[in-house]
Amino acid sequence: EIELKNREITDSINYAQRIQASLLPPVSKLKSAFTGAFVFYRPRDIVSGDFYWFEPVDEERYVIVCADSTGHGVPGAFMSMIGSALIQEIVTRKDITRPSEILTTLDRELSRTLNQGSGGDSSSDGMDMVVCEYNKKTRMLRFASAMRPVILVMDGESYYIRGNKNSVGGEKLRDKYFDDQEYFLKENDTVYMFSDGFPDQFGGEGGKKMKIARLKKLIEDINPLSMEEQNKRVSDFFDLWKGGLDQVDDVLLMAIRI
User: How many Å is the Cα radius of gyration of the chain?
Assistant: First the structure.
């Protein structure tokens, strides 16, 4: 009876994974908009709380989102689908494309959707994310971040750029704010965005946490390679580091090359 119940639950989650996967933009769509791109996406429990979103807003500008929802598995997947739907509404229907305004609006809409701050059994869940607006004509990258850093490789030099120390949704704070950062990029410059699942993974000798320093070193090492080779190296590095240990969280690492 336990085996039957387990199979029924697993089959249901596998079907949910197909639905969730259909909502993620095809990587080919990213690749066609830039010189190159890759997405390393590894859910911990079939479905994922991490998600990415991409949409052209006119002939020159694109909005790219890399997000990490509270939790993983089924609860995280619910949050990711809510987040994806709200971002779609904000960008394509409300025509809000400035990253800081997207995060501010999403924070308000997510709190409203989940009845946060209303007392009782309201949810305290939220999201950490990076929202980028890229202008293909001017090569200007404008981004705002909720708790997640961005790594830019410009002229072969890597720069680790921190985001605002506020999550989207979750705890209601009066002084919560998100601001924009702007960079003019050159051909072959690369933007890396990621959830905390990669640097938080335990492994290596002694089963230690990877931490951000190792991820930065990995990105510096692989940056000269093609995007396809970078994706393979990222995957191989993660599997080698994790070894026989359990995956601790959903993992998402994505990159775009100008």
Answer: 18
**Predicted structure pTM score:** 0.93
Burial (CB < 10 A; 0-12, 13-18, 19+), residue 68, is buried
User: Which tokens belong to 97?
Assistant: 């494309």
User: Could you report the per-residue pLDDT of 72-89, keeping only the tens digit for each?
Assistant: 889 899 999 999 999 999
Please report the pLDDT score of residue 116 as a whole number: 81
- Angle of the 227-242 helix axis to the 211-222 helix axis, nearest 10: 150
Cβ neighbours of residue 66 closer than 8 Å, sequence gap 6 or more: 52, 129, 130, 148, 193, 194, 195, 252, 254
Higher pLDDT, 177 or 53: 53
Q: Is 27 helix (H, G, I), strand (E, B) or coil?
A: helix
Q: How far apart are CA 33 and CA 225, in angstroms?
A: 19
Compute the distance between CA of residue 96 and CA of residue 251 in angstroms, rounded to an integer.
28
Mean pLDDT on 36-62? 96
In angstroms, the CA 143 to CA 134 distance is 8
CB 146 within 8 A of CB 129: yes
Task: Please give the Cα distance from 81 to 98 (Å, whole number).
Answer: 22
